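Mods, move this if it's the wrong board.
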Amino acid sequence: MLNKPEAMRRLEQIVHPLVREEEEAFLERARAAGRRMVMMDIPLLFETGGDRRMDVSVVVTADADIQRQRVLARPEMTAERFQAIFGKADAGRRKSGGAPTFWSIPALEWNPRSAACARS
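Not the wrong board. Structure tokens:
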């Protein structure tokens, strides 16, 4: 899919609305439970424009070499697939214009991810 932009776009047109529905249901459950704030882990948040729905966005990241090592350790991951995914995510970080707070961490034994906060 990564090398087939049209197929990827069609897949995203199917998947993204379903993910958005689940996000809205999650927020509604949080509201009903009286939560004033929630934390969401959303891959490609900036690339999909999801950051516009957030009150605060925080990106926690690791050095590119560490990210590469971790991702390439996954089953069936190739250097080509990693580069396609990493390039897409990196473009989104550049597009964010520095709006989120970026935290860079040293090499740790856990897998850092992007996270976003939204009022419930």
